Amino acid sequence: MSLYSETFYADAINRLFSERETIGYMLKVEAALAEAQASLGIIPKEAAMVISASCNVDFIDVNKLKTDIVLGGNAAIPLVQQLTKIIKNTDFEASKYVHFGATSQDIIDTANILAIKEYITWTEEKILLLEKVLVQITNQHKGTIMIGRTLLQQARPITFGFKTAGWLQSVTNTKKRVQAIKSQLFHIQLGGAVGSGNITITEEVQAKFAEILGLEKSFPWQSQRDTLNDFAGILGVLSGSLGKIAKDISLMMQTEIAEVFEGAAEGKGGSSTMPHKRNPVTCALILSNSTRTPGLVSTMLAAMVQEHERSAGYWHAEWETLTQLMGLTAGSLEKSLDLIQHLEVSPEHMLRNIEITNGLIYAEKVSLYLSKSIGKMQAHEAVKKACKSAVSEERHLKEVVQEAFPDITDLETLFQPENAIGNSVSWVETILKNYNTD
Amino acid sequence: MSLYSETFYADAINRLFSERETIGYMLKVEAALAEAQASLGIIPKEAAMVISASCNVDFIDVNKLKTDIVLGGNAAIPLVQQLTKIIKNTDFEASKYVHFGATSQDIIDTANILAIKEYITWTEEKILLLEKVLVQITNQHKGTIMIGRTLLQQARPITFGFKTAGWLQSVTNTKKRVQAIKSQLFHIQLGGAVGSGNITITEEVQAKFAEILGLEKSFPWQSQRDTLNDFAGILGVLSGSLGKIAKDISLMMQTEIAEVFEGAAEGKGGSSTMPHKRNPVTCALILSNSTRTPGLVSTMLAAMVQEHERSAGYWHAEWETLTQLMGLTAGSLEKSLDLIQHLEVSPEHMLRNIEITNGLIYAEKVSLYLSKSIGKMQAHEAVKKACKSAVSEERHLKEVVQEAFPDITDLETLFQPENAIGNSVSWVETILKNYNTD
Amino acid sequence: MSLYSETFYADAINRLFSERETIGYMLKVEAALAEAQASLGIIPKEAAMVISASCNVDFIDVNKLKTDIVLGGNAAIPLVQQLTKIIKNTDFEASKYVHFGATSQDIIDTANILAIKEYITWTEEKILLLEKVLVQITNQHKGTIMIGRTLLQQARPITFGFKTAGWLQSVTNTKKRVQAIKSQLFHIQLGGAVGSGNITITEEVQAKFAEILGLEKSFPWQSQRDTLNDFAGILGVLSGSLGKIAKDISLMMQTEIAEVFEGAAEGKGGSSTMPHKRNPVTCALILSNSTRTPGLVSTMLAAMVQEHERSAGYWHAEWETLTQLMGLTAGSLEKSLDLIQHLEVSPEHMLRNIEITNGLIYAEKVSLYLSKSIGKMQAHEAVKKACKSAVSEERHLKEVVQEAFPDITDLETLFQPENAIGNSVSWVETILKNYNTD
Amino acid sequence: MSLYSETFYADAINRLFSERETIGYMLKVEAALAEAQASLGIIPKEAAMVISASCNVDFIDVNKLKTDIVLGGNAAIPLVQQLTKIIKNTDFEASKYVHFGATSQDIIDTANILAIKEYITWTEEKILLLEKVLVQITNQHKGTIMIGRTLLQQARPITFGFKTAGWLQSVTNTKKRVQAIKSQLFHIQLGGAVGSGNITITEEVQAKFAEILGLEKSFPWQSQRDTLNDFAGILGVLSGSLGKIAKDISLMMQTEIAEVFEGAAEGKGGSSTMPHKRNPVTCALILSNSTRTPGLVSTMLAAMVQEHERSAGYWHAEWETLTQLMGLTAGSLEKSLDLIQHLEVSPEHMLRNIEITNGLIYAEKVSLYLSKSIGKMQAHEAVKKACKSAVSEERHLKEVVQEAFPDITDLETLFQPENAIGNSVSWVETILKNYNTD
């Protein structure tokens, strides 16, 4: 539909949720149903073979199918009609057993889970790669001093690796969430009309059907969408975590700060009017995605109140929403991997920025030091006063403090950035022990 | 991207926001810019003519453009590159003046407004048609008695026209809102790099550019997105109003209620497993849309906090979001028109349903009647008690009340539905005076 | 702030997040910090004892604190000021060590986690109770025949226990999610100014601090909010699952359906104007909550893109949002428990409703039966035709089918509801094996 | 409920939506109903006088009322009960006519509109004040040169007044929207049980009732919530526009940029650990609000699909949501006024920042200049190359360009910021003509 189908998304995932692939998964499910029923003697083995052989997306008139969806309200109805017609033409007997005892939602939901399974395989691979480059950059920069910032103000020095270690941990957390949800998510949907099964949809059929498709047996969840929404939530969180990384990088790329840069590529990040600019284009796209995913998660959640055994509208609201949520999150993931892999870091500019406050950023360190002798509140007030003088007189805080507290001997030490980074390095090292840093 | 591109949307609007049309609008804007600048002597007239002639979507390599968006972060950058290259091949001099002094956002935003203008033309037509069929159905059924329901419970009788008059008014309200926003929305975006203009983008160029495109002159609104969001809000409200109509109809279509039905069409509303069902398929799609639009509006609003003179991400978040919001709302509008046009109404079932409570729905009427003699709270309690007896003894409320208050003489009148519809008819007639009911 | 503070929420949780309790948790954290630092010799043991003793909400001027928040932007700043002042009045030396080396976010986040821990304890208790009553009702009604409905249309019979088994499973799924997140969520926040620690905030201090508070040691997550959002997502899903239950019940309570009812209580569910009504008041409140929670989850997710080491606005957006999300979800949980505990079920009305379609609901069963001899599509068409005749001629489907297929001998069996419930009973029994049904 | 009730909100609006005020408005509506009915002879004049006199919030047991809401599901039911009881104690006859023929929603919706009317009066005053200070700052700084930034990168110079003129226009746009919605929003709700009126709720009663309350007569809009949602949308847009201002200011306050500052106040913006910091506290609170309001608007929109004549849950979802949306927007408005009124602007730092790129920001100007002789694309490429050299050799762009194009004579002029601000000043002056700048 949109000019931007490649801008915000990942190619592989666009393909996975393409029309053809979606139909392909539905056909795979129809075939599996016939095979399961045949293996249990519910339908003839020959019929199942014919059905299986006919479950080929090349036989389907996709445009007609898309148009027909509007009549029945879902994609399985016209697909089953086409499939039955195809089979009837060659084997009337077999055509009796297409979609035998099943309902549209059985096919659509199970096919969707199959696609989600592929999606998760892809996602886990990308997460592992992202984790790996984040471990590398964290290890490499665990000692690279930069200023830490709170409320967009310079606060106290940290190291760049300390910052990226935070990014890394959020990604690892998502990795674990994705791992944990798989056993609950990879479930078949198979229950017939109202989910209760029937003589052709027995517990044994469910088991066989699940086995063929590589999924877990499950009680129907036709209008119980909690696990699907749990998954949507995990995607929303991942998109948010990646948005946080992009936000940090875009802020550090500001002309006045210039501490990191997106990797340069031919034609990348250029402005049509300002040839000198180096725009945080990848960050912008990731941030755009993380601006959009919360609304999609909320739509999924709003669609949970599904009436009775199948909803009139809420189920339908999931279809494009979840696909788009997966697509945008995949896009962010792929872009984040590219972003971190090619990130250019400028330790020089990081050091330069530490100096621009004329020592004000060491104020807390001085305050903490003084508090031992004169008390915390008192030190806080004294240093606050010294800071004001430093600012108004455009002097370095070190000088002002030295004047106010001439007895302090180790003032120089207090104003060295490497002494102000707290436990940045050791804490990063603790974290990195959980990863392979080779 | 999706199998459902025709399910939830309107064909005409899908085409309007197709890749080719979107590029076409951008090219139209580039041509208008050249023409405006030429008419004011800023660029040579010959150059403008060459540029105009080259602004043809057939010359554009759309796939390359889509791929290149990722590099620059928006569609105008690769479009201008392709356009300049095309022109350079034939007229080197003219190629100097392509996109002269403009910035990507000038092109994208103005092109978007042009598309929105078309969208609104289409929308206004559909709203007028919907208004017309709602006026018809309201007029036709202003006296058709049915039960009014609150909290999903039968309450007191109304008429079906009274219900549809409410639907009608919400649609008319949106019509007025759309009408009112046009003068604020149909504004050019033209300001160059940071919106401040330059020697090639003067107030005169803006005026001429606006005139050529049939839009209003405007101070740049590059990162002031309030009017665009006001428009998004109007769409969200329309989608909600249509969702309310679909909700009512889907509830009235329940098997146990059966008061109205979606028009039957060959193959429509069928279930793959239950041949007898008459599913509210159109309602389900409209409700699906109204479940999704709130999240899209919230994304638009969340994207308002755009940094400085052009945002790094929030502007980007608008693109697909607004298109999708327009698409879904257009889909709901077209489907609602079809829904109301072909709605089958069953006055018999409406009357039947009025009787199923054994007179309980007249309780308020009795209560109000009694309150004149014994007081409101007292009447309320007395009638409550009578209702309990009626229910437990499975008797008609009329009998129970007659026993409790033997002096009432005009009890029969109280229990006639036509006497219980309040001012339904006269109020509907008052409303219909605002419309042409011929 | 609102008249409705008791309407949508749970009293116990309102108290937990009251002003006093919130301050109390922050003071508990300040005390724990002093104790941890004292135990490691970083501050004098006497100071810690004084600080601990002063960490009493009764000493705090709550109104002043609330007013002062606006100045510093968070609650910890004025709290530390008041606390320090209180201590300075009695023990100047001890006052030096209040909030020693910590930052506001350390206190607020850790205090919030302590409250969340209490919240989860309460929630788990309620979930267990809800699970218990759902197991009971499921067991009791595993064979109670009712109609299953899809797209708000009667479809095929199920049992009421089959429906409630679905509700039960969604609640159990949430129980497991809550159980699983605890180990990730119950983490301290302690890192000082920018999260990197300092000489007074060492890894040892973190460990001791965590131990005192009964939480886990953790690397600071000041602007990494993924786990908090994972928790928000779980709440959103729970609220949605409970909304689904309330939706089902409110629909079944419709006057025309009347299959279940909210338990009657003196004054409950009454309408001010219609004394006979039995409104689904509890359902309405739960549905109201599930309408509101998706927006709150989306706000949490939108707030994830927190700048650098502490955000300017996004962190702040979490505070009331998460509290409200917890509050509404707790309200829904408590109300759902009450709803299910006192639910009145009418098996008679359930049976009555099965009959109102003149056998149409058995159409799929007939279709499936016929498909064995004449093929699925063919049977579908034949039964569709029979249904049309039955409707137009107001006859029972059984008669019409008998006429069309006089050879069928066991037609009666096909039209008995107990033969049409598929595997409802056995599947419910399988599910119930996972629970204690005594 | 929350410690933060004063942090994010405005005191005046907190009071307006306090429990007592809310009840007060409902009582005002009950009184107006009685008066209207008495004036038309529907109820005795004496009864109306007694009812009016009893409609006093001091007579109401607020705590009992709050508890009782849960039973009936809305605040009007227990209020009418208390009111009737109070009146019955003194005048049994009058007690019969309390809430005569009305329904809960009539009272709650109309009372809400009365409160909204007050809210809008307050809001319009604040908007006018904000507009005034924005006009002042725009006028004062129309020539104050600063760098314009796109995608967080320095782009081309503008003036600070040019930036604030954008802020100003968005606020003026909202002023007009608020003005325009009043005639549609200030409508009574009065229709009785199902909205259709009855013998005590006639068109004449509606007219009189409206007149007494200073509102417009209206057909009931019990489940048609489009106008209320249009209003919610306007608030969402205002909150977003104010968020954009706060975003800009918070970014300009960054330590490395330091172009503007929130006004200093005793104790304001301090960090508990970093005495030197000057946090954008007010910006953070406004941004927090603009992060939260989109989710609230989406909840309002999601609640539009209200069933039949009164919804079971969606109406309820509006109550706290709209109040909170109004509260947060009012908070942002009051805070924005304070923010702009006390904003400290540093023209020196603005000029300093313009210089930090060694002339790179003039690249577009040079490019545009060169394009006249060598063509746009060619100039773009040449300048791009020059920029690269300037960066890698750490030289000023002016020198590099001079070397590459030795023939250019007026190079100095190209690199003067006052020549690079385009039409900033004249455009601002055009805008200011719409305002009183005295």
Task: Give unreliable regions of chain A as ranges.
Answer: none
- By secondary-structure content and strand pairing, the structural class of chain A works out as mainly alpha
Spatial ordering of strands, largest sheet of chain A:
1-2
Topology as H/E string of chain A? HHHHHHHEEHHHEHHEHHHHHH
What's the number of extended β-strand segments of chain A?
4
Tally of DSSP helical segments of chain A: 18
- Radius of gyration of chain A, Cα only, in angstroms? 29 Å
Mean pLDDT, all residues of chain A: 94
Main sheet record of chain A: 2 strands, antiparallel
Oligomer: homotetramer
Question: Kindly, what is the distance between the CA atoms of the first and last residues of chain A, rounded to a whole number of angstroms?
Answer: 45 Å
Shape of chain A: elongated
> How much helicity do the residues of chain A have?
55-70%
Largest interface by Cβ-Cβ < 8 Å: B-D, 114 and 115 residues
* Share of β-strand residues of chain A: under 5%
